[in-house]
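Work Package 3 (structural annotation) set out to generate three-dimensional models for the target panel prioritized at the project kickoff. During this period the team completed the workflow that converts sequence records into discrete structure tokens, so that structures can be stored uniformly alongside our sequence database. As a representative example, we reproduce one entry of 213 residues exactly as it appears in the project archive.
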Amino acid sequence: MSGRRLWIAALSALMLLTMLAAAQDEKNEVGGALGRTFISDQGIKGATFFDPTIHFGKSLAFEGEYAHRFLITPIYSVAGEVVGVYNRDIDLNAGAYPFAGVPTDLKSYFITPAARVNLFPTTAVSPWVSLGAGFGHFSESNMLIFSGTNPGKSTTGFVLEGGIGLDVKVWKNLSIRGEVRDFWSGEPDFPLAPTGKSRQHNFFVGGGAFWRF
């Protein structure tokens, strides 16, 4: 090997070690995001009245997350993360007066530990995928949409989480993030409006920032 090639190889190795050392100093991150949760409309089984469909509003949602990177290379990194998403007000609508099948609104939150794999984690732009499992909770309004007491109850159940996103470094240890996560949960309790389903998709679409340390 010529002297020039040797210097190039040594410089490349030094740059690689420098990148790895810098990455090792930033194993933890905390962050938050703001977005919307989208739930597909669902038909009411056996309904004969007008508009036999449950319509879910697009709730303003808040996300918080903590992650720790266990493995970091220039090509990929593997992290464990805990993600929490809170939906403060999901408006509901179905049928027409006097067929009050659903409550006026509901709230929900999901908490899911997960594994996340980032590509090119030591560069300024890093796409990622996430997969995890945890639990979710739905809390319903006491009133039905066209008056009356809601017979449905709050529920808590198992949730699967899958997500994709993109991280962009903007300043020192600060990065911004865009993401889409699907929280596959159990159905809320709608005894007057059965859908015949046991699971539903809750798509969180949002953006925010995180700090790595």
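The first helix runs from residue 3 to 24.
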